[in-house]
Amino acid sequence: MQRQGSIGDANADPRIRVTVGGLLAAYLAFVAWFTLRPLDVPWVMPPNLRPFAGIEADFALGWQVGVRRIAEGLALLAPLGVLLPAAHGRITVSPLGSLIRTVAAGALISLGIELFQTGVPGQVVDVDSLMLNTLGVALAHTAVVPATRHWLRRRFEREHGTSALKEEAPQGRTPTIPRVGIAP
After folding, report:
1. Average pLDDT, consecutive stretches of 10 residues, N- to C-terminus, the chain (184 residues)
2. Which of 8, 51, 104, 184 is the most exposed place for a label (fewest CB within 10 A)?
3. pTM confidence score
4. How far apart are CA 129 and CA 27, in angstroms?
């Protein structure tokens, strides 16, 4: 079992974590500005609550329009797939757990954006955007984070020894205290 503060924790340099946290805050501010600014449009489409309906409509206008829509949806929140794990700073975590946490955070951020758009003039809720944004976070995380963590672990092992990242041996069973009866 690893203990907090042991060399097996292998956290990133605090300066890097602060820098990534600043980049994350700046990126989220940009996304909020980009997605929540009022648009001056003569008419507004109704909300799209049926999955893939907006994408089908865009492909009906031409494959270039459909591909552009998919690319925009995937790219909007994709940097979160890298920034969120980097801000966490751990290099020895479960790859599946990291992916699930990152995708869940990306989905919640995308859902928050869609819900805030209900009150912004010219912006409409679109379930396709939610799905594409979440998929973009998952793809970016899968493409970048495991390889980067592997590279960082190898670098850490070279600097601190080959067994620095191994789990510490358990210290034995946790002592138990016998139950005390209730006073009469």
Report:
1. 46 84 96 92 86 93 94 96 92 92 97 93 92 97 94 85 59 70 70
2. 184
3. 0.79
4. 18
